[in-house]
Amino acid sequence: MDIFKLFSKKSSSKDVAKDRLKLVLIHDRANVSTQLLEILKTDIIKVITNYMEIDEAELDIQISQATNDGGVNVPMLVANIPILSLKRDRHS
Amino acid sequence: MSEIIVITSGKGGVGKTTTSANLGTGIAAQGKRVVMVDADIGLRNLDVIMGLENRIVYDIIDVIEGNCRLKQALIRDKRNENLCLLPAAQTRDKNAISPEQMQKLCEQLKEDFDYVIIDCPAGIEQGFKNAIAGADRAIVVTTPEVSAVRDADRIIGLLEASELRNPLLILNRIRPDMVKRGDMMTLDDVTDILAIDVLGIVPDDESIVVSSNKGEPAVLDETSRAGAAFRNITRRLMGEDVPMIDLEEQSGFISSIMKMFKKK
């Protein structure tokens, strides 16, 4: 078992702990609940569909972490919204 | 100028009471007048850790409700006359006391002592709010586990919201062997996440169990590694510049030899 561990590239359990903690603390600190994210998602869909057709099933919104210019970690809202087609007729 | 320090953590069982007992005892051993306040109403424990459970007559609620004078409720330590304990009530709950009453009590204690050490209950409810109400400084105790660090982060946020800025971290129960294997977060990992100043680290040590069995704080035990860590923390808390202990070295060759000798 240990030999197996030696050859696998799996990261040590403390790195797993650290990564999980970082993610969970982003949510704790931002005080953003999953319900709030769902409401936000619905609103974003509502606005964007006025301008373009999007793939709602593949839409993904989450709170993540980014490093700003000062090297400080800050929470970041990441939205991945696949566009199916642009509604060109709205912007003539 | 006396100082009121609250020992807190959020999560239970990470070593708040042990830390309170050892810091209180350690500071008193340096010749300062210290009172330890057990703010964990209903779950009194600092008395047994200190070995003073047989001497309790009055408690903190008796003082607040005026059933006795403050001096009557203070229990003098067996080993050091500079050290006193104000025990928690065992038959009441956290709502028997308000933050304002706690603040008033702390001000009173400040008159007779150089340091007031408050042992905060686990959680973030009324008991926590009471315990931090009169404090000038806060110490956050955590262990290198995800749940404890997460709760510590929450506590740091709540302390800052209550104007208790710049709390100091004690990372308790570090196991150098596990750190070496990469199976336990290091001090750097934890401070990277919590972003607060470090007061000290304490190795996981069987002598802590022995000392709590006997009711004698490990800080007085010259052979205890955790006791040595608490002695360093005490000196740092009192403003001395003491380097961090190297846990790696202690788990290595020298300590193995020392252990061999101790067993004989």
Q: Your description of this structure?
A:
- The complex is a heterodimer of chains A (92) and B (264).
- Chain A has 92 residues and is α+β, with helices and mostly antiparallel strands.
- In chain A, the strands form two sheets. A two-stranded antiparallel sheet of chain A has the order 1-4. Chain A has a two-stranded antiparallel ribbon with strand order 2-3.
- The longest helix of chain A has 18 residues.
- Chain A has three helices and four strands; from the N terminus they run αααββββ.
- Chain B has an eight-stranded mixed sheet, with helices on both faces.
- By secondary structure, chain B is an alpha/beta fold.
- In chain B, strand 3 and strand 4 form a beta hairpin.
- In chain B, helix 1 packs across helix 11 and helix 5 runs parallel beside helix 6.
- Chains A and B meet through helix 2 of A and helix 7 and helix 9 of B.
Concise summary:
In chain A, 42% of the residues lie in helices and 25% in strands. Chain A has helices spanning 2-7, 13-30, 34-48, and strands spanning 52-54, 60-67, 73-80, 83-86. The model of chain A has no long low-confidence stretch (mean pLDDT 80).
Give me the number of helical elements of chain A.
3
Give unreliable regions of chain A as ranges: none
Mean pLDDT of chain B: 93
* Number of E-type strands of chain B: 8
Q: Globular, elongated, flat, extended or rod-shaped: what is the shape of chain B?
A: globular
Largest chain-chain contact? A-B, 13 and 18 residues
Mean pLDDT of chain A: 80
Radius of gyration of chain B from CA coordinates: 18 Å
Number of strands of chain A: 4
Q: State the helicity of chain B in percent bands.
A: 40-55%
Order of helices and strands of chain A: HHHEEEE
Quaternary structure: heterodimer
C-alpha end-to-end distance of chain A: 66 Å
Task: Give the helices and strands of chain B as they follow along the chain.
Answer: EHEHHHEEHEHEHEHHEHHHH
